Amino acid sequence: MSRKTMIAGNWKMNNTVAEARELVEGLKARASEIAGVDVVVCPPVTTLAYAAEQFAGTPVKVGAQNVHWAESGAYTGEVSASMLKEIPVEYVIIGHSERRQYFGETDGTVNQRVKAALAAGLTPIVCVGELLEQRETGETEAVVKTQVEVGLDGLTADDAAKIVVAYEPVWAIGTGLTASPEQAQEVHAFLRNLLRGLFGAVADGIRILYGGSMKPANAKDLLAQADIDGGLIGGASLKADDFMGIILSG
Ligand code: PGA
After folding, report:
1. Is pLDDT above 90 for 250?
2. Domain containing residue 37
3. How far is the CA of 12 from the centre of ligand 1 (A)?
């Protein structure tokens, strides 16, 4: 099954509307170069509406970086799926390692968020990945297996067909240390097999993105791997030319 490459930019907690202008204009100016690749940008919540408005009618789609599982209620600081849909936003990153590390995100809360996103018609980009010490002690596969099994628990094959998975080794995020194409492919192939065991043939259509210091200089080799279907880009998504460089490697 062929899978359309996806390049998603995770702006993290960067860019007020004023600060985002140059990047947004830069991407819009080059949007006609985008072909055969799904492109998503995920700004902070305060910049979502601006981004959605600016990218309307272009091939660039907009995603959020988190979503709560409840429809509404007493959850100070959180955002619901219907609030994101109203903007409108189409994608949402769920379970990023920074959410897990600093904000108490667990596989259980990832699971609740994924279900809420799917129920609202948002496409979840579900992040998994091991810490450096887990890689060094040979636990990578066991760690991502639990993250997938618990994070996607209760999903049907139809649900699974709608999600995107991102493999982001935590030691490669923001460090300049990229997984080698072979290291990444090994885990991506493992994840694909795991998804096949859980959901059957739809696994062959699920996009598995790589994230962790992806940049124009290394994107081509990573994206050439059989089970690497795109990238989730942090730092290099903040400069239009760098992000476009990755998009054009896809
Ligand atoms: P990075 O971040 O590209 O800056 O390493 C990737 C991510 O955290 O999604």
Report:
1. no
2. 5-249
3. 9
Instruction: State the catalytic residue, choosing from 68, 98, 168, 188.
Output: 168
Active site residue 96: yes
Q: What is the number of domains present in the chain? A: 1
| 130 touches ligand 1 (CB under 6 Å) | no
CATH code of the domain in which 40 resides: 3.20.20.70
Amino acid at 108: G
What are 83-142's pLDDT values in tens digits?
Answer: 999 999 999 999 999 999 999 999 999 999 999 999 999 999 999 999 999 999 999 999
Mutate to test the pocket of ligand 1, among 7, 10, 93 (most ligand atoms within 8 A of CB): 10
Minimum CA distance residue for ligand 1 atom 1: 234
Q: Residue 50, Cβ neighbours under 10 Å: how many?
A: 19
Q: By C-alpha distance, which of 149, 131, 127 is closest to 139? A: 131
Instruction: Count the helices and strands in the chain (H runs, E runs).
Output: 11, 8
Phi-psi region of 104 (alpha: psi -120 to 50; beta: other; left: phi over 0): left
- 130: nearest Cα among 186, 61, 199: 186
